[in-house]
Every structure is written in C-alpha cells, then in structure tokens.
C-alpha cells in the first residue's frame, strides 16, 4: 500500500459487511501498518466521510497505555 492513497470507494467496500474497523483491521486488509492507515484515513475523517470513535472498553483516561490501533475504530458517515 506504500505510496498509494486509499479511496473512499475502497473504504466503503471494505466496510460493507464490517460496518466498523480499527486501523489494525485496515492495515491487515490493505497490507500496511496501522500508523500508515491512520494517516490515510484522517483526510476522510476531516472531510466528514468517516467517523473515528473510541471503543467503549477503553478507559479514556489519557494514560496512553491503550494501543490506539485497537482502541479507536472508523465508521462510514452516511450522507
């Protein structure tokens, strides 16, 4: 996936049956790293095409113990 940008169509296709996914899930699917996927997904979050949410089992204390690639998930925003 290096040097290529993920498209909204690819995200939509990937999320068609999953409904939500972590950056780790995207990384596995697109053969990349969670950090790279977060960079790829962020523009779609900024454009309000994707939402980025905290999993409910994360404590939200800001202690940075939780692995963000597993504690945050992405969902398509229906337009």
Structure report:
With 79 residues, this protein is of the alpha+beta class. It is built from four helices and three strands, in the order H-E-H-H-E-H-E. It has helices at 8-15, 23-30, 34-46, 68-71, and strands at 20-22, 50-54, 72-76. The N and C termini lie far apart (27 Å). The model has no long low-confidence stretch (mean pLDDT 84).
Which short descriptors sum up this protein?
79 residues, alpha+beta, 4 helices, 42% helix, globular
Describe the secondary-structure layout.
Blueprint: H1 8-15, E1 20-22, H2 23-30, H3 34-46, E2 50-54, H4 68-71, E3 72-76
Antiparallel strand pairs: 1-3, 2-3
What sort of overall outline do the alpha carbons produce when their principal axes are compared?
Answer: globular
Distance between the termini: 27 Å
Radius of gyration (CA) equals 12 Å
Q: Which strand order spans the largest sheet, edge to edge or round the barrel?
A: 1-3-2
Please estimate the helix content. Answer: 40-55%
Percent of residues in β-strands: 15-25%
Number of helices: 4
Largest sheet: 3 strands, antiparallel
Poorly predicted tracts of residues: none
**Topology pattern, helix = H, strand = E:** HEHHEHE
Helix/strand/pairing class, anyone? alpha+beta
Average pLDDT rating = 84
How many beta-strand elements? 3
In short:
The chain is α+β, with helices and mostly antiparallel strands.
């Amino acid at each position: 996936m290096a040097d290529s940008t993920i498209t909204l169509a690819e995200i939509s296709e990937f999320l068609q049956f999953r409904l939500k996914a972590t950056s780790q899930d995207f990384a596995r699917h697109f053969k990349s790293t969670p950090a790279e996927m977060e960079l790829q997904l962020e523009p779609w979050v900024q454009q309000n095409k994707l939402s980025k949410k905290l999993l409910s089992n994360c404590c939200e204390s800001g202690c940075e113990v939780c692995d963000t690639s597993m504690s945050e998930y992405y969902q398509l925003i229906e337009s």
